[in-house]
Design goal:
- By secondary structure, the protein is of the alpha/beta class.
- The chain is built from 10 helices and 13 strands.
- Strands 3-2-1-4-5-7-11 form a 7-stranded parallel sheet, with helices on both faces.
- Helix 3 links the parallel strand 4 and strand 5 (94-99).
- The longest helix has 15 residues, at 149-163.
- The chain is globular, with a radius of gyration of 19 Å.
């Protein structure tokens, strides 16, 4: 069994990750700022530190050594640089939780043009080794960092790859769903509108996108931490779905009809489904399957997700 540190394991699928690692028999240390209670009791060790502050982080882990560190809270290159500097070779391996948003051509900024991207992108279409990162941008300003989430993740990947002295896996995670711990509110959005008979807005002829259940995203991160996996790997159900399929699953679970209204320009519409895309936008997961991790098709788990959401509502 391995000694694994999870940076940021107290919210959303970070909790699923810690639970999975504990279940698999690993020794788990959770590193957080100590602001969010966790349910793990004596099953984990805890380190309190600010993962975005190089000095605080370095002091906190100076006497530590881990077989792997899973970084759930790395949203920009500053956090990546701080982590690499603080841990050095004391992390036997890094797993960086990244995002499907790195492939979003609409979020590339400044002089960096978006490379050609497939509708369902493969890992090689975005090479972090060739991507420029800038530590001097105002990443600590929420008004800058929030709108530049995708750019922050791209630069975090690039900085981590550039500065890590140990093997690195970049887990590019699709839209994460969970019915009971709905951190993003996206599941609740659909349940509440369908239950209330309110319409849900979609783009005209909406495209498909990639989804993954929280428990399976966590299982993938836990698997990547202890297996010979390096480089970027996409994490998503193999069958992308559109907003109509999502709404149909929730409507069936609720025993209601879902009204989906397509609009040519739905920008600013509060009823716009977060799973509506103007065109296909998702990820190819053949690389994960080739490495030995097979994601479950959304068609298999989306109805049960909807039923669980109905019970939790």
């Amino acid at each position: 069994m391995a000694d694994i540190c999870v940076i940021g394991g107290t919210r959303f699928f970070g909790k699923f990750l810690v639970d999975r690692l504990i279940h698999d028999g690993h020794d788990v240390t959770v590193l957080t700022r100590g602001r969010t209670p966790d349910p793990f009791g004596d099953a984990v060790r805890r380190i309190v530190a600010d993962a975005t502050d190089a000095d605080s982080l370095a002091a906190a882990v100076a006497s530590e050594r881990f077989d792997a560190v899973v970084h759930q809270m790395c949203y920009d290159p500053r956090a990546a640089a701080a982590a690499c500097e603080a841990f050095g070779e004391r992390a036997g391996k890094w797993v960086l939780t990244s995002s499907m948003e790195v492939y979003n051509a609409d979020t590339f900024r400044w002089e960096v043009p978006a490379p050609p991207m497939s509708a369902f992108a493969r890992e090689a279409e975005l090479d972090p080794a060739a991507y420029r990162y800038d530590l001097d941008l105002p990443w600590d300003d929420p008004e800058f960092a929030g709108p530049n989430y995708g750019e922050g993740k791209r630069q975090a990947e690039a900085a981590m790859l550039d500065r890590s002295v140990v093997p690195l896996a970049l887990a590019r995670i699709a839209h994460v769903l969970d019915a009971r711990d709905d951190f993003t509110g996206r599941v609740r959005f659909h349940v509440e509108r369908i239950r209330s008979g309110l319409p849900i807005t979609a783009h005209a002829s909406p495209g498909r996108t990639s989804l993954v259940p929280a428990a399976e995203a966590a299982a993938f991160l836990a698997w990547a931490a202890v297996n010979d996996v390096t480089g970027a790997v996409n994490a998503a159900a193999p069958d992308p779905v559109d907003v109509h399929a999502v709404c149909a699953a929730f409507a069936q679970a609720l025993g209601r009809e879902a009204t989906v209204v397509e609009r040519a320009d739905p920008s600013g519409d509060e009823a716009l489904s977060p799973y509506s895309c103007p065109a296909d936008f998702g990820m190819n997961v053949e690389a994960a399957a080739a490495l030995g991790f097979a994601f479950t098709p959304a068609a298999s788990w989306l109805p049960e997700m909807a039923r669980a959401a109905e019970k939790a509502a």
